[in-house]
């Protein structure tokens, strides 16, 4: 589904990604871990086309298409979804109106007619229930006055509504208490299928107890320095990141 | 990569003004220039009574004495009052008896503007008066209104048919000497709409006037007078467009509202005069005096305005709260882009006891647009327990525009409660990216954000106009993100 080869990118003059290689197939969950400033969120930004990131080398193929040539909205329409670390507030725009606009824009891109109101309502109810999202929040302004936990849950609700092929969760667990973490994780687990894939970016192994990954990658200094299975996450939890940093430093010197 | 915001800005700042066409129609146009003869000419053309001519001449005298205003937050443009024609009318019969007599070109013009004048085509519940240059060309739904005793006609017609009402109320809220432009309007006003709602009548439909400036080098000076008798209700909407022209054109209207005891007037404006091109060439000078008076207890006047057009918009729809427990409201969205200027706001005069006012102003500035909110809340010594709430928000799009706020508060009564809130925000790249990431392109994202921002005001508009206003905002701001 997603194939990243030697991806390099910079912000202003700072090289952030220094050659990422990653293969994600349908039905897989990949966790990306790493210390602060290693490039985890930057990877999410580059994949989704945030403006101030400049790709300097490498390629990203998503379902046979060159993702880097597409506008941010077209990447979204192709089925790439980012659950934001810091979801944005948009006053006066109701959550439901926003979602309907988004859904119909995506449908239009695939030459489908707008979804009928009745069907949309049915879908909303179904997904609200699935991800345990408070119906009251659906009619409020988009994220305005939402608590940190409510914002994160809204991201998962949107994910459920838009049904993307590839979902990138950018530190969705940060700022969540244990109950919220459970609800968010349950939602993601219910949405997992053999047709979609997830990239879960996190600092902590904790989230991976709930969303069990097929692969774990450690990102350090703009490169994936180690890959493994879920046991790798446990090892990181135990030993910290220092033992990972050594070879990377050597490699960048060499 | 995606088209960046700067490209989109380029592309859309050239966006054509949709209503910029000129109708080719034979016109009676008065020679340019302002003097007593022109005023007599206009008055005679309309077959006015002597008292009205004298009133016009007093207005002219006041105009000559008044200095140019100097307090506004923009450079006052040099206006050559002798270079304007003060009367232009389609050359057909002086009065239209029914729709069949109206020039088909005119009908076509209003159709083009999306204003159907033939009654059977009108969507349920909107009666329309259309003013083309200086003359009212058609008023629809006369019969239905008559059944309720409602008068909705052009001012010229009302002068002939209801002189007692005109003489009693014309200039009673905005006197001919009020300010330079109101004085000019009093001297040369050509037409406008007149509404009278009898006691206890709730007007069964929205009343609406569309103003269209067509001829070059003419000014438009219409005068609207609305009287809501005791216990009555009316909702009124005006819309305005003009052709694209390189020279500036002047629009100096006066609107007077009178609400008697327990009456309510809701006045909505969707103003889309030609704003000039992207270099600031041409466009309408929209210098308007709008004022309402709540004469009786519990009367209510509410102004709602969506201002997207004009090179300069300069107006302060105000309410004089004379009746005890009367209330005044002002809801405004003003958009400026390219080199447009808006200096707008309201004045609320609390005179009666327990009077209330509410001011919600939303300024949106894009390009090099300058947007000023200027408001006065004045509480008189007898206005026990008066209350005011003001919220004044500014939204900036790009980094070359400006937002300014000039709130004035004067209170002579200790029991008054006055609240003022103000915010300034910017459409952030983060907001745009968030919406992009959900499959919404930048154009739609800006429209969504702006409409969300202006929602509180748009909600005040009658439903079908709210939709129109929403579209207008989206079109006006397409691609202004930089």
List the helices and strands and how they pair.
The complex is a heterodimer of chains A (254) and B (482).
Chain A (H helix, E strand, L loop, with lengths): L1 E10 L2 E11 L4 E5 L6 H9 L4 E10 L2 E2 L5 H7 L1 E4 L6 E5 H15 L7 H14 L4 H4 L2 E2 L5 H15 L3 E5 L7 H14 L5 E5 L4 H5 L4 E6 L2 E6 L1 H10 L2 H12 L1
Parallel strand pairs in A: 3-10, 3-11, 6-9, 9-10
Antiparallel strand pairs in A: 1-2, 1-4, 4-5, 7-8, 11-12
Helix pairs in contact in A: 2-3, 6-7
Chain B lengths: L4 H9 L13 E3 L6 H10 L4 H16 L22 E3 L13 H9 L13 E7 L2 E5 L2 H6 L3 E4 H7 L1 H7 L10 H9 L4 E5 L8 E7 L10 E6 L4 E9 L6 E4 L2 E6 L4 E8 L11 E12 L5 E8 L4 E4 L2 E4 L5 E10 L4 E10 L5 E10 L4 E10 L7 E10 L5 E10 L5 E10 L2 H8 L5 H17 L4 H15 L5
Parallel strand pairs in B: 3-7, 6-8, 7-9, 8-11, 9-12, 10-13, 11-13, 12-14, 13-15, 13-16, 14-17, 15-18, 16-18, 17-19, 18-20, 19-21, 20-22, 21-23
Antiparallel strand pairs in B: 1-2, 3-4, 5-6
Would you write up a description of this structure?
The complex is a heterodimer of chains A (254) and B (482). Chain A has 254 residues and is an alpha/beta fold. Chain A has a single domain, classed as Rossmann fold. Helix content of chain A is 41%, strand content 28%. Chain A has helices spanning 40-48, 72-78, 95-109, 117-130, 135-138, 148-162, 178-191, 206-210, 230-239, 242-253, and strands at residues 2-11, 14-24, 29-33, 53-62, 65-66, 80-83, 90-94, 141-142, 166-170, 197-201, 215-220, 223-228. In chain A, the strands form three sheets. Chain A has a six-stranded mixed sheet with strand order 6-9-10-3-11-12, with helices on both faces. In chain A, strand 4 and strand 5 form a beta hairpin. The model of chain A is unreliable at 248-254 (pLDDT under 50). Chain B is an alpha/beta fold. Chain B is 23% helix and 34% strand. The model of chain B is unreliable at 1-14 and 118-125 (pLDDT under 50). In chain B, the strands form three sheets. In chain B, strands 5, 6, 8, 10, 11, 13, 15, 16, 18, 20 and 22 form an eleven-stranded mixed sheet that branches. Chain B has a ten-stranded mixed sheet with strand order 4-3-7-9-12-14-17-19-21-23, covered by helices on one side. Chain B contains eleven helices and 23 strands. In chain B, helix 2 packs antiparallel against helix 3 (50-65), helix 3 packs antiparallel against helix 8 and helix 10 (442-458) packs antiparallel against helix 11 (463-477). In chain B, strand 3 (126-132) and strand 4 form a beta hairpin.
């Amino acid at each position: 589904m997603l194939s990243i080869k030697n991806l390099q990118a910079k912000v202003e003059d700072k090289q952030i990604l220094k050659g990422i290689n990653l293969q994600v197939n349908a039905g897989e969950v990949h966790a990306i871990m790493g210390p602060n400033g290693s490039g985890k969120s930057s990877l999410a930004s580059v994949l989704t086309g945030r403006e101030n990131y400049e790709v300097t080398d490498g390629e990203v193929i998503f379902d046979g298409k060159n993702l880097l040539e597409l506008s941010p909205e077209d990447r979204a329409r192709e089925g790439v979804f980012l659950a934001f670390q810091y979801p944005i507030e948009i006053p006066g725009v109701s959550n439901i109106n926003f979602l309907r606009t988004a859904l119909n824009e995506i449908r239009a891109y695939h030459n489908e007619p707008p979804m009928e109101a009745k069907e949309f309502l049915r879908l909303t109810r179904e997904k609200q229930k699935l991800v345990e999202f408070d119906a009251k929040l659906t009619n409020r302004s988009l994220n305005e006055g939402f608590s940190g936990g409510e914002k994160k849950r809204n991201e998962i609700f949107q994910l459920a509504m838009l049904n993307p092929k590839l979902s990138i969760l950018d530190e969705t667990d940060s700022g969540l208490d244990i109950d919220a973490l459970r609800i968010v994780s349950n939602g993601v687990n219910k949405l997992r299928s053999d047709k979609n894939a997830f990239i879960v970016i996190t600092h902590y192994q904790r989230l991976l107890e709930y969303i069990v990954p097929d692969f774990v990658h450690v990102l350090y200094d703009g490169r994936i320095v180690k890959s493994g299975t879920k046991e790798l996450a446990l090892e990181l939890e135990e030993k910290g990141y220092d033992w990972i940093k050594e070879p990377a430093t050597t490699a960048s010197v060499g | 990569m995606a088209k960046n915001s700067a490209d989109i800005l380029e592309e859309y700042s050239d966006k054509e003004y949709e209503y910029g066409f000129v109708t080719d129609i034979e016109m009676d146009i008065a020679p340019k220039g302002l003097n007593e003869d022109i005023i007599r000419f206009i008055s005679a053309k309309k077959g006015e009574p002597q008292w009205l001519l004298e009133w016009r001449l007093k207005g002219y005298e006041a105009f000559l004495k008044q200095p140019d205003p100097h307090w506004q937050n923009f450079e006052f443009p040099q206006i050559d009052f002798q270079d304007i024609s003060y009367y232009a009318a389609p050359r057909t019969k002086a009065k239209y008896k029914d729709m069949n007599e109206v020039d088909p070109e005119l009908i076509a013009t209003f159709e083009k503007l999306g204003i159907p004048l033939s009654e059977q085509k009108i969507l349920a519940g909107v009666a329309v008066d259309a003013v083309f240059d200086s003359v009212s060309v058609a008023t629809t739904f006369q019969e239905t209104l008559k059944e309720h005793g409602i008068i909705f006609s052009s001012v010229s017609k009302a002068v002939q048919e209801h002189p007692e009402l005109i003489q009693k109320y014309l200039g009673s809220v905005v006197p001919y000497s009020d300010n330079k432009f109101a004085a000019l309007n009093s001297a040369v006003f050509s037409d406008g709409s007149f509404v009278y709602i009898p006691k206890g009548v709730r007007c069964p439909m929205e009343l609406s006037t569309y103003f269209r400036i067509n001829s070059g080098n003419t000014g438009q000076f219409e005068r609207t007078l609305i009287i809501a008798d005791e216990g009555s209700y009316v909702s009124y909407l005006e819309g305005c467009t003009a052709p694209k022209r390189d020279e500036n054109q002047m629009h100096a209207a006066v609107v007077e509202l009178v609400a008697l005891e327990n009456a309510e007037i809701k006045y909505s404006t969707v103003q889309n005069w030609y704003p000039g091109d992207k270099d600031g060439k041409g466009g309408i000078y929209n210098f308007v005096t709008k004022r309402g008076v709540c004469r009786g207890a519990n009367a209510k006047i509410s102004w709602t305005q969506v201002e997207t057009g004009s090179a300069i918009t300069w107006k302060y729809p105000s309410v004089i709260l004379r009746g005890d427990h009367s209330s005044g409201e002002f809801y405004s969205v003003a958009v400026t882009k390219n080199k447009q200027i808006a200096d707008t706001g309201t004045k609320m005069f609390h005179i009666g006891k327990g009077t209330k006012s509410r001011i919600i102003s939303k300024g949106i500035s894009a390009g090099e647009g300058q947007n000023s909110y200027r408001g006065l809340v004045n509480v008189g010594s007898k206005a026990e327990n008066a209350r005011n709430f003001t919220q004044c928000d500014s939204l900036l799009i790009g980094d070359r525009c400006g937002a300014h706020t000039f709130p004035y508060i004067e209170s002579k009564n200790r029991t008054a409660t006055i609240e003022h809130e103000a915010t300034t925000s910017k459409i952030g790249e983060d907001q745009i990216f968030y919406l992009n990431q959900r499959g919404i392109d930048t154009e739609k994202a800006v429209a969504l954000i702006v409409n969300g921002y202006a929602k509180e005001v748009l909600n005040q508009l009658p439903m079908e106009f709210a939709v129109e206003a929403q579209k207008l905002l989206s079109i006006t701001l397409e691609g202004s993100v930089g």
